[in-house]
Amino acid sequence: VISRAAHELQLESYVIGGFVRDYILQRGEHKDIDVVAVGSGIELAKKVSELLPHKPKVQIFKNYGTAMLRAYDLEVEFVGARKESYSEESRNPEVESGTLEDDQNRRDFTINALALSLNEETFGDLLDPFDGLKDLGAGVIRTPLDPDITYSDDPLRMLRAIRFASQLGFRIEKESLQAITRNKNRIKIISKERIVEELHKILLSEKPSVGFSHLHKTGLLRFILPELTALEGIDEIEGQRHKDNFWHTLEVVDNISGNTDDLWLRWAALLHDIGKAPTKKFDDNLGWTFHGHEFVGSKMVYKLFKRLKMPLNEKMKFVQKMVLMSSRPIVLAQDVTDSAVRRLIFDAGDYIEDLMTLCEADITTKNPRRYRRYHN
Ligand code: CTP
Prior knowledge:
Elements: H1 2-9, E1 12-16, H2 18-25, E2 32-38, H3 41-51, E3 59-61, E4 66-71, E5 74-80, E6 82-86, E7 93-97, H4 100-105, E8 115-117, E9 126-127, H5 132-138, E10 140-141, H6 147-153, H7 156-168, E11 171-172, H8 174-183, H9 192-203, H10 208-218, H11 220-224, H12 226-229, E12 236-237, E13 240-241, H13 245-257, H14 263-271, H15 276-279, E14 281-283, E15 287-289, H16 293-307, H17 314-324, H18 339-348, H19 350-359, H20 361-366, H21 368-375
Parallel strand pairs: 2-5, 10-11
Antiparallel strand pairs: 1-2, 1-8, 3-4, 4-5, 6-7, 8-9, 12-13, 14-15
Helix pairs in contact: 1-3, 6-8, 7-9, 7-10, 10-13, 13-14, 13-19, 14-17, 16-17, 17-18
The site of cytidine-5'-triphosphate (CTP) has 11 residues, from strand 2 and helix 7.
Organism: Salinimicrobium catena
GO biological process, one term: RNA repair
Keywords: ATP-binding, Magnesium, Metal-binding, Nucleotide-binding, Nucleotidyltransferase, RNA repair, RNA-binding, Transferase, tRNA processing
C-alpha cells in the first residue's frame, strides 16, 4: 500500500531503521515501521491512509515534519528524507530536506541505516551505503560517520550504542567505543526520560552486565547512576578485604535476569547494595561492616528515582521494599502494609526468594548448602 501511495505521489519511499535490522536478524516482530519518503512524509502518510480500507487516522507532528498511523497492529511512522545538523548550543536540529543518502548519513549506527526500497522497479532492494549488513552479520555496532559527529548530533546515541550491544550481544567497534569515553560529558544535556528508557532496555536484555560494564568503563555510569560506581573497589585494612560490591551487583543482576523478566525485580537487583557505600566501616572486632545498608539503600532508591524523574509509584516502593529486605532470608508479604506493593510482591511470587538468594550470590555459588544453614 505504501509503495502504491508513493507511486501515485511520484516520490521514492523506503523502510528504514529498526524494522529492517530486526527483520534481517529475524529477531521477533518489530511493531514500529519507519518509512522515509524523498519528499513529504506527511503527504505520503495521508495518501496511505486514503488507500487503506479502514482509513486510519493520521497523526501529524508538524514541528518534526513527521506523521504516524496505525494499521494492522503496526505503527507506521513517515518522515521526509532530511539532512540534519544540530548546533553545539541547541538540542533542536536544523532540518533541511535531502536525499535518501542524506537521511542514512544522519542515522546512529550502520545497522540502523539499512533501507529497503518500496519503489516499483527496485522493490525489496537493500540500500546499504555503510556495510551495515556486514556489521549485522559480524555483530558490530559502528557509527556511519565519524563517531564524534554522530554522538554530538545526539548524545543519547552513546547510550543507544551500549543498549544495542547489550540487547543484541554485539560488540562496539573500537573508534565508536572510544568516542563514548571522549564525549561522555555531553550526556548531561539529554533528558532523564530518554536516559531511563535506555536503562530499562539494558536491564531487560539477556545479560545486563554487558551494558552496565560498558557504561562503567566508558565513564557514563558516573553521570547517570553514581550510587553504583561508588560501590566499586576493594579496601583492605589489617589484611581484611571486602568484596567488590559493584561487580558483585552485576553478577546478581545477571543471575536474577536468568530467572525473571520482571523489570522491577531487575531494578531491585541492580540497587540492592547501593546503601553499602555510605555505610561502609571497618570495625576492629568485626572487620568490614555495612550495618544498616538496607535501610539507607531503600531511602536512596527514592532519591535516585526522583533524580531520574522516574514515577514515584508502587513500583518504586516495591524496589525500595526489595532493597530493604535484600539480606533477609524470608519475606512475609503480609508485613507490607501498602496494598499495591503487597500485590507486586505476591505477583513476583517465587522470584522473591530467588532475589534474596541471588543477592547472596557469592555464598550460594560457592556452597548452596552452607547458604541454607547460614540463613536457617
Ligand atoms: N535513530 C537515530 N538516532 C537516534 C534515535 C533513532 O539515528 N538517537 C534512527 C535509527 O535509524 C533508528 C531509527 O531512527 O533505527 C528508529 O529509532 P527507534 O525507533 O528509537 O529505534 P529502533 O532502531 O527502531 O530500535 P528499538 O525499537 O529497539 O528502540
